[in-house]
Known about the structure:
The protein has one helix spanning 2-41.
Amino acid sequence: xxxxxxxxxxxxxxxxxxxxxxxxxxxxxxxxxxxxxxxxxx
Length: 42
């Protein structure tokens, strides 16, 4: 019983982590590209 509950929480946690990390990854990619181009100019 506890293992089933733990599996459910793990699945939900994984889904939440994916949804939460997606926007951060997109922002990091934007800032990463911007900073790399700015660094390339100097």
